[in-house]
Design goal:
A hairpin with a 5-residue loop joins strand 9 and strand 10. Helix 7 crosses helix 8. The strands form 2 sheets. This protein has a 7-stranded mixed sheet with strand order 6-5-4-7-8-10-9, sandwiched between helices. The chain has a 3-stranded antiparallel sheet with strand order 1-2-3, with no helix packed on it. The protein is built from 11 helices and 10 strands. Helix content is about 35%, strand content about 25%. It starts with a strand and ends with a helix. The radius of gyration is 18 Å and the shape is globular. The chain has one domain: Vaccinia Virus protein VP39 (Rossmann fold), CATH 3.40.50. With about 270 residues, the protein is of the alpha/beta class. The relative contact order is 0.11. The structure holds S-adenosylmethionine. The site of S-adenosylmethionine has 23 residues, from helix 3, strand 5 and helix 6.
Length: about 270
């Protein structure tokens, strides 16, 4: 593959590494595990397929498709319609043959097998362009972009405005990312925010909804406070076409000129 190198993750599933960004596409602990723990479970995906006849999913950053493939596995419960955004065509093609525990999902992706009423539409372009073509709202949105400090383009206030436009009132947006500028960008768009807690009570994953009743674990006062320090100054991309460099520069200058408390001062005060 042009941009990605393959490695084996700890659960035996395939992961990818991007040399240009020095960034992994999948957790070293397990690509398949990560998809289940950070997207399928937090979105209550299985329950949604049991409670409704059709679930519409927007998969932003399809990559080699773990999140979409795991969602498609619930095809016996309900119809599932996926719009998948990814700019690297090679990855989408690779996903159709890459090892997956349910081989019939790959057969479906290759068009060799019909499974229930599943549908998946691929949009191969910058997700910031593709998203402007979408108009029908979704029950679930997965956002699995590269980390914001590597590539901020899909974490801006303006991109979240598009995701909000496309989320149903009882829909749910899930991302693995809990960075402060990301949470702040969601909050500036009026999302209610939640998280998942691991066995040590540490927060991972951010959940954004328009209906606070859907949030099981809301962000606590400490987390909300941290988001409102300089650390939470969000990325901006007014016309959804800035380069990463421009976005980093703009944010840096905002941080420099801001009167907000710094994160370290906030942490010292809260200890
Ligand atoms: C962390 S990986 C996602 C992994 C993926 N969900 C999977 O299951 O394999 C991030 C993906 O986002 C894609 N990407 C990054 N920026 C993008 C953009 N602006 N538009 C579309 N795709 C983008 C990359 O090509 C990469 O496949």
């Amino acid at each position: 593959m042009k941009h990605a190198q393959i490695f084996k993750t700890d659960d035996g599933s395939i992961g990818l590494y991007n040399k240009e960004l020095d960034e992994i596409y999948h957790s070293r602990e397990g690509a398949q595990k990560e998809s289940i723990e950070k997207f399928i479970i937090p979105s209550d995906f299985e329950k949604r397929t049991k409670n409704t006849s059709c679930v519409r999913l927007l998969d932003v950053c399809y990559g080699i498709g773990y999140n979409s493939k795991n969602a498609l596995c619930y095809y016996k419960n309900s119809d599932i319609i996926i719009d998948a955004l990814e700019w690297d065509f090679e990855l989408v093609e690779y996903s159709k043959t890459a090892d997956f525990y349910l081989s019939e999902i790959n057969e479906f992706l290759r068009g060799e097998k019909k499974l229930g009423n599943l549908k998946i539409n691929f949009y191969i372009d910058d997700a910031r362009k593709s998203i402007l073509k979408l108009n029908k709202p979704y029950d679930v949105i997965f956002l699995d972009a590269f980390a914001p400090n590597k590539l901020p383009t899909l974490w801006s206030v303006e991109f979240f405005a598009q995701l909000k436009r496309l989320l149903l009132p009882d829909g749910i947006l899930v991302t693995y990312c809990s960075a402060q500028p990301v949470r702040k960008a969601m909050s500036l768009n009026g999302f209610c925010l939640g998280k998942m807690l691991d066995e040590k009570n540490h927060s991972y994953v951010t959940i954004a909804t328009l209906d606070e009743k859907l949030i099981k674990f809301p962000l606590d006062e400490f987390e909300l406070g941290l988001m409102n320090t300089k650390a939470g100054i969000p990325y901006r991309d007014e016309n959804l076409n800035s380069s990463a460099e421009e976005m980093f520069k703009k944010r840096e200058s905002e941080v420099k000129n801001s009167n907000l408390k710094g994160a370290s001062a906030y942490l010292r005060k809260m200890r």
